[in-house]
Structures are given as C-alpha cells and as structure tokens.
Amino acid sequence: MNFIKQKELEVSGKITINRKSDFDSFVRNRVSETGYTLVFDESLKKNNKITYIGNQIIINDVPDELINDAFEDGKTS
C-alpha cells in the first residue's frame, strides 16, 4: 500500500479471481527446490506453527506419528 501511495498509482477496487491458484497466492506460501515443494497456509506463520531461523524452515508441534511415517524410523539426520 505504501508503494502505491508513494507512486500515486491508481488501482482498481475490483480484483478478479478466475482460478483457485489466483486465490492461493494470497493465503499460501510456496517454497520449492529440486526434490521438494513445501506449500503452507499463511496462518501457520502467524501462529508460529512454521517459523524460520536463517535458512532453516522449522515446523513446530508435528505429531510424532506423522514424523515417524515420513522418516520411517523416527530418526532425523
């Protein structure tokens, strides 16, 4: 908003969303690299379920069962 005000730009009051992916860009974040894609709701950042330190993304309070299923042996490297 500050950028728009500073540049004195005119913006339409109507935003058209034609596809679900258009809406997703407002409420979801996507981190993608070779071998993985992490997509998560913006609300998870707001309630500290997903945080980061430096270049590490941290997912907090994941149930043990989900971690064990993902890593099979329940151990991290």
Overall shape: it is elongated
Gyration radius, in Å: 18 Å
Strand numbers in spatial order across the main sheet: 1-2
Average pLDDT number = 81
Instruction: Quote the distance from N terminus to C terminus.
Output: 43 Å
Query: What ranges have pLDDT less than 50 throughout 5 or more consecutive residues?
Result: none
What sequence of helices (H) and strands (E) makes up the elements?
HHEEHEEH
Per DSSP E runs of 2 or more residues, the count of β-strands stands at: 4
Which bin fits the share of residues in helices? 25-40%
Main beta sheet strand tally, sense and closure: 2 strands, antiparallel
Q: Helical stretch count?
A: 4
Descriptive tags:
alpha+beta, two-stranded antiparallel ribbon, 77 residues, two-stranded antiparallel sheet, 4 helices
